[in-house]
Amino acid sequence: MEETQRKKVLIVDDNHSIRAAVVAYLSEQGYAIEEATDGIQGLAKGLTVAPDIILLDVVMPGMDGFKLCRLLRDKGVTAPIVMLTEKATIEDKVEGFSGGADDYLPKPFNLVELELRINALLKRYGDETAPAADEAKIVYSGLEIDLDRHKVTVHGKEVELTPIEFSILQLLASKPGVVYARNDLLNAIWQTSYAGYKRNIDPHVNRLRMKIEDHPRKPKYVLTVWGVGYKFNDALK
Question: What is the pTM of this model?
Answer without folding.
Answer: 0.67
